[in-house]
User: Fold this.
Amino acid sequence: MTPPLSRRPLLGCIADDFTGATDLANNLVRSGMRTVQTIGVPADADAAVDADAIVVALKSRTIPADDAVAQSLAALRWLQAQGVEQVVFKYCSTFDSTPAGNIGQVTDALLDALHGPGQGFTIACPAFPDNQRTVFKGHLFVGDVLLSDSGMRHHPLTPMTDANLVRVLQAQTQRRVGLVDQAVVSRGAEAIAQRFRDLQADGVGVAVVDAVSNGDLFLIGRALAGMPLVTAGSGIAIGLPQNWQATGALAPSSVADRLPAASGLRAVVSGSCSVATNAQVLHFRQHGGEAFAVNPLDIAAGEDVAAQALAWATPRLAHGPVLVYATAEAEAVRAVQARLGVAEAGELVERTLSRIAAGLVQAGVRQLVVAGGETSGAVVQALGVTQMAIGPQIDPGVPWTAVTSPVYPGETVHVALKSGNFGSTDFFTKAFARLASETRA
Ligand SMILES: Nc1ncnc2c1ncn2[C@@H]1O[C@H](COP(=O)(O)OP(=O)(O)OP(=O)(O)O)[C@@H](O)[C@H]1O
Ligand SMILES: O=C(O)[C@@H](O)C(=O)CO
Assistant:
């Protein structure tokens, strides 16, 4: 049964990875929506969720497109059962995908489900200016360089070698892809909405939308009022809540959840090989942090690397946060992939890091930072997490959360899921200081 109107969430979101989900939930909370994040599609179809927005976190970014579509449609059906008015399909601000998927394929499936086969219209807008992701003339920039000139060209699973999003998306979708460029966006919400109508009349099904500032995202957000499906990065959260605030359906709520006080031991598990994470690992080690490097070739050779890492970490945990990392520079990653295969290398490392994370929590870690979206997905699943409450922001896109897990009933485990490219160089030390100061009684 659909929950009563007054308790219905307004916005339902489907995120294609777990760090991306907390990133979106964080931005929604900061923009005035009480937000609940679930891990996977909850089993209870009729659960009444007391929140303005729900983010369903999937791990569907790099799985086969058919599986990603099936999981996304299951999430859509569950969100529809909650009575949501609008759905956001959230992907990476660096548009992580390949011609095999999954952004275009999932977008097609969601549009088909909402509007009928081949029908409907939506946007694609990965812009997140607070994290230096901007879209101009359909081209995605990371800081001052094109996506294809950024570290993303070496991504282990989804190397991004073309910054032209119209071209990238057209290779993944059956629908025609169009563009709403900055000249239109700067003219305001009505001009943007008119351009949506014109493009749709011309047979376009998905429009890449330029955005170079939060101001653009506000204007785009207004033009998205009533659009059943929006596909975007987390930046879009800045512009959507205003539509319900304008109708009175949403009372502005102020802040993220106040999380319980931090306690327990501290650790970082990192499987991200991004430029930012490599710098963060180096910074942690150069500033005296204790660190254990996981070598994928040792895992492939049959060594019990998880047991070795835990034996190394256990006596050190009492003295401060420890770091366990597979993070490596692009050249080293390529060498490993050449030996083991891309997917196999990724899976081996993810499985090992998630066993290590579970072992660390078993050993008393209650403050855990995880770096990397795929890695976070594996870790959160290994910890049996079902829900995450969003707390204080460490850096744009990365909040602390308090997790609910039947594996740790009654325990507070604080977890921060850091997207590969997010966070300042001193993130791994700053994060714990932030949690201590923000949750102090
Ligand atoms: N040394 C390594 N060699 C090969 N693969 C590795 C190595 N270290 C990590 N990996 C794999 O690389 C992938 C990194 O993806 P992950 O999503 O965790 O990080 P990211 O892409 O930087 O983060 P995000 O998705 O948040 O941007 C994982 O599958 C991980 O297991
Ligand atoms: O949008 C981003 O950049 C992040 O939320 C993310 O999805 C990284 O995995």
